[in-house]
Amino acid sequence: MKRFIKIAVIYSVFMFSVLFIISISYKSLKMESDIPSSYSDQQLQIYKQLWESMNESADMFREQTMMFALYTWGFLLLAGYVVLIYIYYKDIKPMVELQKFSKEIAKGNLEIPLPITSNNGFVEFTESFDLMRESLKESKLREIEAENAKKQLVAELSHDLKTPVATIQATCEVLQVQLDRKKEALANGDLSGGVDIDKVEEEVGYIAKKADTINELVQTVFHATIDDMKEVSVNVDEYASTMIEGFITDLTEYGKIILDNHIPECLIYMDKLRMIQVIDNVIGNSYKYAGTDIHVGFKETEEMVNADGKKCRFIKITIRDKGPGVKEEEMPLIVEKYYRGNNSKEKTGYGLGMYLVKLYMEKQGGGLEYYNDNGFVVELLVKKV
After folding, report:
1. Phi first, then psi: what are they for 251, rounded to 5°?
2. Contacts of 23 (CB under 8 A, 6+ apart)
3. Tens of pLDDT along 271-283?
């Protein structure tokens, strides 16, 4: 639009400059007499008559030329403005409307329609742009509907969770009362009162069933959430490598974990929370599926090229078990979202452990490798500072 205005101004200045030149030229075309002083009166009279006749003819020619020039100038001025107006309504105005329309779209206003006329040069582009608006509008509506459906699902599941949780709480309270009575009897020296083992076993089994119900409900919520997870928050900072040994030794619930050596002392890049999750997932999987001792070793690598093409050094954490390993045909699939192998049918889980391990390690600037070697082996690459 600014360029169009600039062209219109330049054209107007040029045309009025031409008009000024025409007016100057009109004045310069006027004839002036120069009567020789040597003429006699008779000759002077004849000269004046001839001069008046010539001057009259010249004035008529000058005026005709001036009128032709003015008419031509006026025609060109009008024609130029007509062309500019035509260009404005055919090309410039539709483009300005498109700019205003795109700004409204950027603001999220998808209700504003884009007028489509057949007398401009952007008909197909305008139609495509309006189709894009309609598509965005439909997509936004679907997104709102999906979000509302998810909120409704979470609300319904939250309600469904109340019943088994309340049952578990009530059962635990009964067990606690029985234990308190037993402790009180023992404190008073009464050894006759005992705990009904069958009753306790029945109540514990009841708790386990309700826990399974909760697990299934939570799994449904978790799937609904993970499907919409576009960006995982990973905040990488510099930490001492020795912290990783602490993460591993804290996992006392996963059987016997043997450190084959100590980690080289250095600074590494990691997200503390995500690294705890990674190690917990890997060692937890080995404990769940192998059920053997778990060996952990550390090694500093030579320079390697990372995903950015830069040479870096890494600390390699090798976690291995002595279980049956993973079937070769399933090996590429274990890092896929929701994939669970044939050996996981009797085990609880969501099929997200190795998927998240790979995701978190890559976002920390490291990597993941895994293979079978007399058991299942996972190698975690943590980038050195």
Report:
1. -85, 65
2. none
3. 998 899 899 889 9
